[in-house]
Write a structure and sequence with these properties.
alpha+beta; SH3 type barrels; 3 domains; 41% helix; 17% strand; elongated
Amino acid sequence: WLSSLAANGLRRWLLGGLDSPFLRSVVARAMALPIFLIGLYVVLQVAGLTQIAFSLIGGAGVLGIIFGFAFRDIAENFLASLLLSIRQPFRSGDLIDVEGQLGSVHSMNTRSTVLISPEGNHIQIPNSTVFKSIITNFTAAPEGRDSVTVGVGYDAAINDAQEIIAGVLSRHEAILNDPPPMVLVEALGASTVNLRAYYWVNVRDYSLLKVKSSVLRLMKKALMDAGVSMPDDAREIIFPEGVPLVRQSETAPEPATIVAKETSAERTVAEASLENDQDDVVERATRGDSPEDDGDLLH
């Protein structure tokens, strides 16, 4: 009774500054445990059961070692959840990558962290693995940088191609102008000069995948409208036995010229909106029963 009273008092008055209820409960119980052990020892001594008190203490130590080995993984995950609650490398809703698993953080319990993948699947990762792994948090900062590569012909003026691509990026609604986009020469390829464009996007509002699709489409249209060639990679085809020639009696018809109709719109019906739709994926994925839904330590 006294240890329970001490735990409630510590949780209410001394640990009120901790944001996580889980942390408050764990710390309060850890601080109340010595009070319980001291009280039990005093009661046994007053009752004249000193030998039993020492036996209980020794037996508790042995049992602690046995249970420690038996439930090592459970204890490791529990301690990892405690440390993750203290350090908070991510919050609920953040898009993270752990051990090659990409998804939005749904919840964290005493055993595992639950992610929602872009496909809407639930991914459970043991907390010990999360704590010991490299965590990439894509939404901790509101802005993220992405890049695209395009190859132009050697007959094109590189500075003109750079200005055309930079103009497309600077006019795009989803791309930030501070810092401004950059277009750099990346490499001299077999048949093209490869240019890489770097730009910043507000990843909390826009989807990087959708923005990249829109940027590539608009860059291709702008370069083709300006007459900048974008040749295919050079290939060498070898015919070991030669190429047979067939003489035709009639003149073959001229192949029809197909003119591609490109749109200058920043978004198409296929791309839908450029906004970040991960929240919609999470909302749909959480309509069903969540696995191991025994409390979220992130709230």
